[in-house]
Amino acid sequence: MTSIRLIDDQRSLDQALALLHAGAPVAFPTDTVYGVGATALDEAAVRRLYTLKRRPLSQAIPLLIADHADLALVSAEVTPLAERLARLWPGALTLVVRAAPLLPAVLLAGGTTVAVRLPDHERLRALIRVLGAPLAATSANRHGGRDPQTVAEVVAQLGDALPLVLDGGPTPGPLPSTIVDCTGAEPRLLRQGALPWERVVAALQHE
Fold first, then answer.
1. Number of Cβ atoms within 10 Å of the Cβ of 120
2. What percent of the chain has pLDDT over 90?
3. What pLDDT is stored for residue 90 in this prediction?
4. Which of 27, 75, 116, 159 could form a disulfide with 36 if both were Cys (CB 3.0 to 4.6 A apart)?
5. What's 69's domain CATH number?
6. How far is it, in rounded angstroms, from Cα 131 to Cα 37?
7. Residue 183 sits in which domain range?
8. Rounded to whole angstroms, what are the CA distances from 122 to 127, 141, 170?
């Protein structure tokens, strides 16, 4: 049975931490929609996340980090473009960068890049910080399902296969993060989400 615990309760974060260290997935609120994640550096845990979501192994899974400095840990190179756009963090912006060698190949789905986001959610970031590793995380739904904004929507899609949902109330949603490819000389919009593209452009025009 899925356990539902308030994210503001330290005991809930302790339970989530224990599950993540054991390789189990946990669902949680973000500043966009509810996500589900596993310890990114644990290949077996990442594979369990794919299975839970019924997500094809051909689709890479993004990362959530706790602090700006963590970008350098998961990226093979933090380009000037990525550095400038990271000034928009924390928030609903995901940056695609060259992946660091320490990341499991299954996480990258055979590619060489990884999508990274620093969410604007203090309790979630506190959990990631204490975990000591980024979260491999994506929306808490079955592959192809609706992005959930409530705990009830998470449980309806993932059910008893999910051991824990951290309840933070309804999330802002309904849009997920905006995704921008930072691996080239110019930024490339891959998905328009909650952060308007105009803000991305403005961030590059104003130092």
1. 16
2. 94
3. 98
4. 27
5. 3.90.870.10
6. 12
7. 3-205
8. 9, 22, 16
Cα–Cα distances in angstroms (integers) from residue 58 to residues 126, 137, 142, 146, 171, in the given order: 30, 16, 16, 20, 28
Overall average pLDDT of the 32-38 stretch: 97
Joined tokens for residue 72: 């350098």
Distance CA 135, CA 105 (A): 15
Candidates 37, 45, 103; CA nearest to 64 is 37
CA distance 159 to 152: 10
**Three-class SS of residue 122?**
helix
Q: Which residues contact 163 (CB under 8 A, 6 or more apart)?
A: 2, 3, 19, 24, 25, 26
Please state the domain count of the chain: 1
Q: Are 38 and 84 in contact (CB under 8 A)?
A: no
Assigned token pair, 192: 């328009």
Q: 94-109: per-residue pLDDT in tens? A: 999 999 999 999 999 9
Closest listed residue to residue 66, CA positions, set 5, 125, 136, 138:
125
DSSP 15-53: HHHHHHHTT--EEE--SSS-EEEEETT-HHHHHHHHHHH
* pLDDT tens digits along 122-181: 999 999 999 999 999 999 999 989 999 999 999 999 988 899 999 999 999 999 999 999
Structure tokens at 101: 């060698």
